[in-house]
Prior knowledge:
transferase, alpha/beta
Amino acid sequence: PRVLxxxxxxxxxxxxxxxxxxxxxxxxxxxxxxxxxxxxNHTGYAGGFRGEVLQGAQLTALVDGxxxxxxxxxxxxxxxxxxxxxxxxxxxxxVLRRLRAASPEVAYFCDPVMGDGGKLYxxxxxxxxYRDQVVPLAAVLTPNGYEAELLTGRSILSEAEAxxxxxxxxxxxxxxxxITSIALPGRDDELLMLASRRDGAASRQWxxxxxxxxxxxxxxxxxxxxxxxxxxxxxx
Length: 236
């Protein structure tokens, strides 16, 4: 199966496409990566980062090049992650519409990368675009706890509230929602992962409690989204 993966690229470290593409290839997928940014390193370094945030016209040009050579057809899935500009995110919407006009069954896996731990690390204007335009087009949505709060406009302070947030996100369009990491008050030693799948009017939900490691890791959400795509395609 072919996957179009649109997310970040860093020279150093494993985030974005560098975290997602190789595992997908190992699992038998043909992956075409498009980089939304070109950074020296991820944005959390104390010394900052250098590089370029790509704009919508650059994405459109790349996709037009694929189309001109008959390479835009045949994608089974689109996977998106970190996107650094509003124009690029709007162009992603155009790409999805083009792909689905030719193949309505193209599955869109959206990791709405905006922030974590109460802190945004993308321009604030992206939130409304994700909430109102991107999420309704997604088949599968994989926010972390903070991103789920942003998209629903509600706090997640308990497992019950997390389950309710999944239902609210289903109402916006995605049939599958996986909140990949939720740090609940009073549970400092664990993280909650909550998956929810809606079939018609009914939802099934699964909770996974994971030991919380006192380390900082980057690229884990990108890897998780890629693996969810792989195994949901293999085992629908």
